[in-house]
Amino acid sequence: MWAYESVFYQIYPLGFCGAPYENDGVLEHRITKVNNWITHIKDSGADAIYFSPVFESDTHGYNTRDYKKIDCRLGTNEDFKSLVSLLHKNDIKVVLDGVFNHVGRGFWAFQDVLINRENSRYRDWFFINFSGNSHYNDGLWYEGWEGNYDLVKINLRNEEVIGHIFDAVKFWIDEFEIDGLRLDVAYCLDKDFLKRLRSFTSGLKDDFVLIGELLHGDYNQFVNDEMCHSCTNYECYKGVYSSFNSMNMFEIVHSLLRQFGPENWTLYKGKHLLSFVDNHDVTRIASILTNENHLPLVYGMIFGMPGIPCVYYGSEWGAKANKSEGDPALRACFENPEKNELTEFISKLAAAHKGSKALCYGDFRSVVLQNKYCIFERKCDDERVLVAINADSEPVTAHFDAGCGTAIDLITGNTHDFGGGSELPPYSVKYWKMER
Questions:
Q1: 392: buried, middle or exposed (CB in 10 Å: 19+, 13-18, 0-12)?
Q2: What H or E segment, with its residue span, contains residue 98?
Q3: In this structure, is the dihedral angle defined by the CA atoms of residues 261, 266, 272 and 273, taken in order, positive or negative?
Q4: With 0-12 CB in 10 A as exposed, 13-18 as middle and 19+ as buried, what is 77?
Q5: For residue 231, which of 282, 301, 283, 184 has the smallest C-alpha distance?
Q6: What is the pLDDT of residue 403?
Q7: What pLDDT, on the 0 to 100 scale, is given for residue 418?
Q8: Bridge partners of residue 375, in order along the sequence
Q9: What angle do CA 143, 149, 151 make, to 5 degrees?
């Protein structure tokens, strides 16, 4: 599966392009802005883009109006088709947000229900009670996602609904040649629907990836051979920044051991979860870390640990934004990409990750674990990589049995000799590929 060997770059298009929050109905070809960022995206080391919602919606993209039409605030279907073609020519895969749990109030079938009520042929597409009411004073009640009535929950047990969604997915594959879907609130989706979606998309395109948005609980319920290939690793998202802020590497390493470690009870060994330090829904990492020197190190962690690394646009140069400022602040419009030491370091991490079978597929084993630094092993077949991270402002010397005398640092290309212990400079990341 190509995704297991890739580095993702996430773009929230409506924010990225500076589109108005409310759908004003005015056609603007804003999505072509991505064309000018392709060189930057490639230079950062990414070879796949995950686009948050691009289809016609009421406001923020997750309240869909039309599954087959690019939002007029972004451009036309032809604009997006040309963009995907250009990305593919640059060897960049494309994954779109599949929002299948709910639609917007502007969705055409729900509008028909509001007008025709009990006589609407689409009444069973939703969960409607015509004896109730909503705070929109529609004269009917309907289920909204987690009580948000701008997000109208759809009935994924209705064959017409399933057919409508599958027809749209086929359209995206046939017309735009997309390579996968990130499934919004996958934890809410009907599991039989997910199984059918996996089978359907696998029959349309080889190696078509499904990545579910999961928060808590047992990821195996949704990530398996019948449903999603991967999911968002929110457990380790929290563990990464918390470990650095509290100077307690035990937290993240114990989470990784629980998920991927050598024990028989390990939960997700062999699975490839999506690793990230921030995204469109959470405070940017540069705003949540208490020590700015840890910023390169958190990326060193997610590129070195098991998973598929994903970088959120703007964060690769240290952009800041806090969730308390509201979602629009997290989904900023940057006129041009920026480049600094952090972007260059992430590019080196990405090259190391993509070029290492052990970092893409290897098992996980803790080698050295202290509050302020850790060393863990990634091993696949005959390739071994030791990932060493020192979060302290002072150098440390780690003594352990490396199993060999020398290694090559995949980040710098320098040779490392393990004789007499291994010194880790302050605020450092090492990816030591062990010589046979």
A1: middle
A2: strand 93-98
A3: negative
A4: middle
A5: 184
A6: 79
A7: 82
A8: 368, 388
A9: 85
Tell me which H or E stretch contains 429.
strand 428-434
Taking 50 as the pLDDT cut, the residues of the chain under it are none
Q: What is the DSSP string of 163-231?
A: HHHHHHHHHIIIII---EEEETTGGGS-HHHHHHHHHHHHHHSTT-EEEE---SS-GGGTBSTTSBSEE
Q: Which two tokens stand for residue 147?
A: 């009580």
The torsion angle over the Cα atoms of residues 352, 356, 359 and 364, rounded to 10 degrees, is: -130
What's the distance, Cα to Cα, between the start and end of the chain in Å? Answer: 28
Phi then psi dihedrals of residue 250, to 5 deg: -60, -35
| Residue 118 tokens, joined | 């009990």
User: What confidence tens digit (pLDDT) does each residue in 339-378 have?
Assistant: 999 999 999 999 999 999 999 999 999 999 999 999 999 9
94: left (phi over 0), alpha (psi -120 to 50) or beta: beta
With contact defined as beta carbons under 8 Å apart, do 303 and 351 qualify? no
**Contact (CB, 8 A) for 94 and 49:** yes
In the three-class reduction of DSSP (H, G, I as helix; E, B as strand; rest coil), residue 344 is classed as: helix
Helix (H) or strand (E) holding 312: strand 308-312
pLDDT value of residue 16: 98
Contact 3, 272 (CB under 8 A): yes
Q: 119 Cβ partners below 8 Å, 6+ apart?
A: none
Rounded Cα distance between 142 and 147, Å, is 10
Backbone angles phi, psi at 326, to 5 degrees: 100, 155
What pLDDT is attached to residue 420?
A: 65
